[in-house]
Amino acid sequence: MEIKGKNFLVTGGAGFIGSHIVDKLLDDGANKVTIYDNFSSGNGQNIDHLRNDERVVVVRGDVLDYNSLYNVMRKVDVVSHQAAQLEIFRALDDPLEDLRTNVFGTLNVLKAALKCKIQRVINASSACVYGQAKYIPQDENHPLRPQWPYGVSKLSAEKYCTMFYEFYGLPIVNLRYGIVYGPREWYGRVLTIFIKRVFENTPPVIFGDGTQSRDFIFVSDVARVHNLCIEDEKANGETYNVGTGIKTSTNELANHVIKAFNKSLDPIFENPPQGSYSKFMPYRRRIPGELINMVLDIKKARKELSWKPLVKLEDGIHAEVEWFMKNSPYWQAKTPKI
Questions:
Q1: What residues pair up with 78 in beta bridges, in sequence order?
Q2: pLDDT value for 75
């Protein structure tokens, strides 16, 4: 399916990833993009640059409002479902809220898409569906044993998407994101905390020994594979990992940030009990049941979509640091508890 000339709906389109997807759809020739967001975590600043673009319509709405979703979908060809409850601690503290947004909200999207005869739905899933790695890199056949409510809700939403494809014939693609980073990233994740602390000339604080690893994928690479899943018919009904396949430890991440600022700082190592607040960062809790390793095997997307990530971690961090230097108020001056 060609993107050029088509009409799109992006739920969560004012969010970090969603806003970059909107940009990429427009760059690739979309006729119209409707941003559907309740602005609970989405940020109007993410789409300020689109204010005068006649191809963009912004609708304040919630994925829990089926009638609103249906009304905005009636003249749409493709739906990109990026709206979600994303915070691990919020899911731990209120798993019902997490369930409502991520599962009931996704079901509303699917029901409306089916009724409106949407040509394709791209669903944002997460590598959290795997839980603790049994092996790395984790391919799409890795056991699915999420250990946080957030992972459970994303897996449930993903399974509903697959069921709507297999049972009702609704064209669906699930994308399991690694750790997506880049300009407009929301504050509260480890990379953003490292950047803000080093910017303020304070050392990054590392929980544990810093050997825990993650797969960091730059947001523009996510937007590229997203659009390939619209254009390539082979993607229909499939689930893809979206990462780099590269293992990056927390220690390496901290050193990349220090280097990006060209500063001489030594990280602080701290070992607070899981779920407890940091002594050095009283706004920050250590996540219970932290993943030891999360590295994604991306052979399937490489083979079937001819996609590969283009942005190296060091270059991506430089890009995020440059953006932050120009937009430091975006991450609140008074740091919230996270």
A1: 8, 120
A2: 93
Task: Give me the active site residues, please.
Answer: 150
Distance between CA atoms of residues 250 and 170, nearest Å: 40
**Under 8 Å between Cβ of 133 and 293:** yes
Task: Using the predicted structure, report yes or no on whether residue 332 has a pLDDT greater than 80.
Answer: no
* 178, 214 contact by CB (below 8 A): yes
CATH number belonging to domain 181-214+247-330: 3.90.25.10
> SS3 of 103, please?
helix
Neighbours of 209 (CB within 10 A): 11
Same fold, 7-130+140-179+216-242 and 181-214+247-330: no
- At the fourth CATH level, which superfamily is domain 7-130+140-179+216-242? NAD(P)-binding Rossmann-like Domain (3.40.50.720)
Residue 142 has a CB neighbour count (10 Å cut-off) of: 20
Q: Are strands 32-37 and 7-11 parallel, antiparallel or unpaired?
A: parallel
Q: 57 is written with which tokens? A: 């319509």
pLDDT by residue (tens digit) across 46-103? 999 999 999 999 999 999 999 999 999 999 999 999 999 988 888 888 999 999 999 9
Closest CA to 235 of 174, 296, 154: 174
State the pTM of this model: 0.96
Q: Give 168-226 pLDDT, tens digit per residue.
A: 999 999 999 999 999 999 999 999 999 999 999 999 999 999 999 999 999 999 999 99
Q: Determine the average pLDDT of the residues in 312-338.
A: 85
Domain ranges across the chain: 7-130+140-179+216-242, 181-214+247-330
CA 172/CA 18 separation, integer angstroms: 17
